[in-house]
Amino acid sequence: MVAATQKDGETWYQCDECGMLFDSKRDAKAHEEYCDTDSPSYLQ
Description:
This protein is α+β, with helices and mostly antiparallel strands. It is built from one helix and three strands; from the N terminus they run E-E-E-H. The chain has one helix at residues 25-34; strands at 2-7, 10-15, 21-22. The protein has a three-stranded antiparallel β-sheet, with helices on one face. The chain is globular. The two termini are 19 Å apart.
């Protein structure tokens, strides 16, 4: 599931599995389909 959040006055979309932020809901949903929470996120 993707959650909308406010950061720096803008709306961002966060992957509930790994916490990664996206500026596009479409990108967040596409990421969510392939999200692998077993491996560490390299962007954190």
